[in-house]
Write a structure and sequence with these properties.
nine-stranded antiparallel beta sheet; 475 residues; alpha+beta
Amino acid sequence: MKKRQRSILALAVVLAVLVAAYFYVSNRPKKQAENNKTVEICKVPKEDIVKMVLESRDGTTLTFEKKDGKWTVDYPYPVVLDQTTVDDIAYSFANLYAERIIEEEPKDLSVYGLDKPVVVAKAFLKDGTQKVLYLGNKTPAGNTYYLMAEGDPKVYSVWMNHGEHFSYKLSDVREKDLPEIKTQELTYLKIAKKGKPTIEIEMNDEQSKDEAQFGLSLWRMTQPYNEPMGVSSDKFQKVLDDISSLTSKAIKEFVEDNPQDLSKYGLDDPVAELIVKDKENTLHLYFGKDTDDGKSVYFKTADVNSVYTMEKSKTKLLDTKPFDIVDKFAYIVNIDNVDKIIIEGRGKTHVLTLTRQTKKAEKEGEEDEVITTYRVDGKEVQEKPFKKFYQSLIGILVDAEIDKEMAEENPEVKTTFFLNKGSRREAHVNYVPYDNDFYAVFRSGKAEFVVAKSQVNKMLDDLEALIRGDLVKEE
């Protein structure tokens, strides 16, 4: 067959198909065409709905009213609603279409669960009119529900989301999140748990530029130790992550509102207390005993007398150990805040002084210059070796918490810092033998940590090198 003949034949076939399609569309059964149309059951402006009532077959009724742009519920105790979830109900009233018309004029509504509807759903509009819907059983397919509208004899099937919205119970529409805490703006944290030391952490408002540069002491721990300690930003991040995880979908189950007996939940004498604050919000929780299955724990907020459960996996931060998250410095202070240091050890006493003079700026707009003179035992030393030794002094890191009570007797090494800032102008850090390898570190008369003797000896070696003048070799 020549090419021209094949083209004519192909065009003829296409034309025949188009003609057949035209006749089919023009003459298809009317009933099928109607079935393929979108069937509107209820269509109203969602913003015009001011009240919704869900009357369940089991006798419970939920009544929502919109006040000042927010949904409220008629309930004897204060509850926080998930506004988005309640709005889903309004959406179903506002845009309700049928999946199918099941029966035009049903003789027996009981086969659809509509002789006694599972839920009677009513929407009240601001113009005074109302829409009433009757929700029946779920269809055998399982993804739709039977439904009728007031004044309409037909039985429809509607998408399951609509059926679920009209079937909501109070627990479905209550807020399950706790107040969000912006952990990057955390200002206060308290973790108190029976049998464990209470942890309190505050934002360090006096953080210096140098401390910020090195990531030190953005927060400081004020409990449980005798002296405030910096909090390690790296180690603390895990706690901050746990706080974020805790607040999201925190409530697993709403157990009881306005309970008269908190003891059955272990909340009359809580096992743990958690307080977290950022610049705007406060989260204050009490935790009771575990649920019977051991997977959750009862808890309540400080401001609402309702009992909830929370998955235990969300409460890991309650087991935070203070030593795991603190900076391990035995004592650290900005050198600009120090005027004098006395160090006693190896049978000698050395006095280190920092004398500052302010040189006025010569030109307008320039800052005054602070000139510091460094001396050891009255002899002036250069800034660089002095500061290198200072790093050795404040760089002593504790190795562990002490495990026994000790008296501050016969310290082998004593350090005293004289400060020019803060309410306390003297800080005493002394090292008392703990065993052959460690010193007990006494701060303000109390020992809470041990430190390897090798670190303290290294500091004394550096001090002797500073005095000899060979701490910093020529480069």
